[in-house]
User: Fold these one by one.
Assistant:
Number 1:
Amino acid sequence: MTNAFYSQFAGNAAKSSVLSVEILRDALLPNLLGDDSSGILYWAGKDLARKFPVDSDADLVTFFDQAGWGHLVVTSTSNDLLTYELNGEPVARRNAAIKNPDYMLETGFLAEQAAQRFNCVSEAKLTATKRLKIEMAVTVDHKQPLTNHDPATPIDIVRPDVDPDASEN
C-alpha cells in the first residue's frame, strides 16, 4: 500500500497545493497538539520514515523535494554522525510566514531513516535554524542495535521524466 500511495502522488508533487499542506502543517496541527506539538511531530516523522523507507541518500533528497519539505543536502557523514542541511523555497517561505516554524517532522524522519539503514538506535536534533536553511544532525548509536527489527522494503522512488533534448536548447 505504501509504495502504491507514494507512486500515485509523487508524480503529481508539483501540482499539489502548497496552501493545503501549510494550513494543515502550520495552522491546524499546532493548535490540535498544543505544547506537545514538537515532540509529536518528531515521532510522526519517525512513523512516516517507517512507512516510506528509502534506499540511499539520493533517494532521501528526492523524497524531501517531493514531500515539499525543501532541498536536503547531506553535508557530512561519519560512522556515528550524519549532518544535513535543509534549504530551498519551502524553508524560506515557512520561515518568512511563520514566527517559529517547526521542523521536527523532518528531524524525526531523518532519525528513523538512519535507524532503518544502520539497524541501530538513532536520534536527530536541530543544530541550527537560520532564515534560509535548517541544519540537523543524526547520531547513530552502533552499540544499541534494534531488536526484533524487520526492515521494510524501500519504496521505489519516482524520478521526474527528463527530456534529453531539453538540455540542448
Number 2:
Amino acid sequence: MTAADTPREYIGWSQDGHAASALWQSANGASAPKRVVPVDDTITADAAYRLASQGVGMLWNGDFQNARQILTALEHRTRPRPDRIERTTAELFYRYRQNRSHRARILGLLLVPLDDGNVIGLRRAPNVVAATVDAYGSITEASVVSLHEVLGTIGAHQWRTKGIPVAALNAKVYPHYGTFFPVRSEYVDLVASAPLGTPRVAFDIGTGTGVLAAVLATRGVPRVVATDIEPRAVASARETVSRLKLDDRVEVRLADLFPDGRADLIVCNPPWIPATAHSLLDAAVYDPGSRMLKGFLAGVLDHLQPGGEAWLVLSDFAELVGLRSRDDLMNVIDTAGLRVLGALEAPAGHSRASDTNDPLHAVRRNEVTSLWRLTASEPAR
C-alpha cells in the first residue's frame, strides 16, 4: 500500500504559542501520536524517554544528527535486560515480541518534518528524496514522519540500489520498499531443487519480489502466473521479471491468493508465524490466525489440475515456539482434501541462526524449512 492509498490524517501541536499542523505519514502503517510537542537539541535522552513512555510524539526542531543521537539513546533504553529466570521457549518468544512492540512504539515517537519535495528541513539533514519517494511517494505538503521509519527507508533504498544476490537465479533482485527481501535462501533453494516434472502452467501465490516465479520460469515452466495482495509487491515482482527478461513466461497479477483458472503446479511460501503483525513490514513474516496458510490450502483443489502438485514452503519456527504443532499442520492439509507426497528440508542458513545475542538463538539454530509436496487425497477419475 502506498502513501496515496492510506487515509489522510493530520496531527497538531503548539509552536511558539501558535497552533500548527501537518500531514502524518507512515509507510509502515503506524498510528499517529495523539499528542505532539516540539523539542530541540536541548532535550536530554532521559526526558525524551519519559515523553515517549507516555505516548507523546516529539517533533524535532534542531540538528538532524543530534536527533539521531537521541534516537540511539532511546534504542539503548529499550534493549531487554538480562533475564536469569529459566523460561520456556514459548515464554521467550512472548517476551521477545513484547520487547519488539515496546521498542517500535518508543522509537516511533521521535518525529521529523518532511516537506514539499521530500526534503527534511533540519540542519545537517541528508538527502532523503529517493528513499522517501520509494516509501511515501512524492510529498506535496508539509508532513511529519517518524525518524526511525525514515532511517529504515534509507536502508531499504540502499538495498534496492545495490540489489540482493539470488544464487538460484545467478542474478540480483531489487526489492521495492515494503516487499520482503529474499535474504533467506532456504526457501528459494528448495523450489530450485525440488522434482519438477513437466508442468505447463504454474501459480506462485504471494510472490513478493517474484523470486519463486522467476525460478520456476528459468527451470523451464512455460507459463507462470504470480499473485500478491500488495501493490508494492506486484510492482517489485514485475520489475524482477522484466530485469530477468522473463516477461514472455511470467505474468504478475494483483490478487488475494489465487488467480482464475487451474495450474499443474501451485507454489506458496506463506508467512510462517501465526501471530499478529505489528506493522505492514511484518506481514511477510506474521500471519494472524494462519489466514494465508489456511486460505492457500483450502483453495488448492479448486485451482489444481488433476494429477497436479501444490508445493507448500514453510518454516517450522512456529512449531518450535509452540504456536502450531505438526499435527495441526497435517490436520489442515488433510481437511483441505490433500495428502503429502513427500517433503524436502533445508536447515537454517540465515545470519540470525548464528547470532548468539539473539534471545531466540536456540530456536533459530534448529529451524528447518520444508517444501511439502501435496496432491489431491483421491486421484481424479
Number 3:
Amino acid sequence: MSIVATRRALLGLAGAASLSAAMAGAVRAEGGSSTASAGPGFANGTPVSIGAAALRVLRRDTMTAFYRDAIGLSLLAEADGRSVLGVDGIPLLTLIDAPDASFEPPTQAGLFHIAFLMPERRDLAQWLVHAAYTRVPLSGFADHNVSEAVYLDDPEGNGLEIYADRPADRWEWKDGVVTMGTHQLDMDAILDLTTTERDTYRGAPAGLRIGHIHLRVGDIPAGRGFYERALGLASTRGDRRDAAFLSSGGYHHHVALNVWNSAGAGRRDPRSTGLDWFSLRVREAAIVEAQSARLAAGGLAVTPVENGVEALDPWGTRVRLLSGAA
C-alpha cells in the first residue's frame, strides 16, 4: 500500500528538506519570528469580519480550476467575464478577466495573501492530505500560537494561506497585544487527525471563510490611518513600524499590513493583476453608516454599492463595507 500523504511528501511540495526549512517560507510570509499571543473572539462572529475578495486575472479558466480543485471552492456563477466561487452558496472569491493586464510587482502595494480559515483542525489535516495527493505546490508551514498555517501561491502568484485557529481561550493577550509567533508546525499531530492512506477531502467544508486579508502597503502610519482610524479596526500587535495587525471584536487579525518589500510604494496600477477589491462584512447597518461618516470626514470618497459602500485605501485598493452577516 502506497502512502503519499506523509510529512516527507508535504515537505517535498514545499521544496524543503525539513520542517525548519519549510518554516522559513512561513517567516517570509508573516515577517519574522516574534513571539506574541491571541485572545477572545472568532473570525466571522465579530461586529466586522472579512466577507469576500476579487482578483484580476490573466487566465480565468486556469485560475477557476485551481481554486476549485486545489482549494475546494465551488463555482457559483460565471458570466460577463467573471467567475464567482464560494462554499454552500456563499460567495468568497470573484475572478475578473483582465487578459491584457501586467503582473503586479511584489514591490508594489497590493495583495500579500488571502487567508482561508478552516472550521476545524481536522479540516486542515484533510486538506493537507489532499494537497499531497494532488501535488499542490506549497511554500511554508508555521505555528503562529493562535493558529496553524500552510502557505502557497495560486498560478498567477497571488499569496494564499490555509489555516485553522486554535480555540480562542488558548490565545494569550497582554496590554491589548496578542501573542503571534512563527514556530515549527507539528505536522505529524495534524496528520494524525485523518487518514493519510487516501484523499478524503471532498471540497471546502461548509464553514470555510476568508479569515483575514494581508496587504502590502507603502507606509504603515498611512495604512493605520485608513484601516484603524477611518474604518475603526483595532490594533492587536502594538505599534510595529514594519507591519500592522488589525481586528474587530478581539480576533487576532482581520486585516494585516506590511512594508517588508513595498516601503514607499505609490498608487497601484488598476490595469495590473492582483487584488481588485475585498469586503468587510458589517453586522449592523449603523456601523456602516458610522464608518462611512468617518471616511467622509477624512476627505475620502465613498461610493454606494449594493448593501453598502466602497472606498479606496491610500494605494487604490477598493474596500467594500457591506451590511449583514454572511
Number 4:
Amino acid sequence: MKPEDALPDDLAGESRFQLLTRLGFAGRGLLYIIIGLLVIFAGRTEDLTGALEYLGHGVGKLLLAVLVVGTAVYGLWRLTDAVFGIESGRHHWKAWRKRVAAGTSGIIYSFLAYKAVRILFSQRVSGNDAQQHAADAFDLPGGEIIVLIAAAILFGAGIVQLVKAAKCSFLARLDCDDRQKVWIRWLGRIGYAARGIIFLVVAWQLEQSAIHRRASEAGGLEQALDFFSPTVRGWVAAGLMLFGFLSLVEARFRRIHRPPPVDRVADGLKDAVRR
C-alpha cells in the first residue's frame, strides 16, 4: 500500500466495528442532506425512510447497500452504549438519561436498517410510522396516556437538542483542532437547533393526537416539515442539511470508544433480559 493511501494514525488503530460506526454517521448525514435538498429544490418533504426510498432506484441502490451496513452498525453501537455505557457513562443519573436516549436511537436506526434492506430488495415499506404507532397505542387500554408519554419524551429530546445547540457540547467528543472547531461549531448550532425544532413540532403533533384521540394527527419528520410555511420550511430544511454535514464531520473526527468483547456483550444482553 502506498504511504498516501494509508489511514491516519487515529483511524488505523480502530477496530472494524468502530470504522463501520463512522460509516453510520456518514449515512445519517447523507439522509439529512437528501431531506434538505428535496425540500429546497423540489418542494418535497420526506422523513428518513422517504430519503432511503429516494435512493432505492438505479445507481442509488449501491449507495443504499452501503447505508444498510452503516445504519445497522450505528444502531448496534448505540444499543451497546445503552447496555454498557461506553459513551454515556455508567453510574449517575445523567448517564442513565443518555443511555436511555442511546437505546431509543439504536432501536430507531436498527429499524431503519431493516427498512433499507426491504427497499433494497424492492419491497414496500409502511408509510407514516407515527400514525400507525399512535393507532396501535389507541387500541390499548390507556392508549392516550402512552401517546402523551411519547410526546413528553420527544419534547424533552427537542429541548436537549436546543441545549446542545446553545452549549456546543457536541464539540467535546471531536478530535480536531481549534481552527476546525470554529466552523464546526456553527454547523452544530444551526443543525441541532433545526433538529430540536422538528422534535418539538412532532411532540406537539403527538400531544394533539392523544388529546383528540385521532391517530391521523400524529406525525414524524415529514409532517413536521409540512407544518411550516414554505419559506420557514426552507430555512428549517437548510438547518437539517447542516446537521447532515455535521454528521459527516463526526464520521471523521468523532471519538468512538472501542466496544467491549463479544462475550461480554452477550452476557450483558442476557442479564438485561433476565431483569
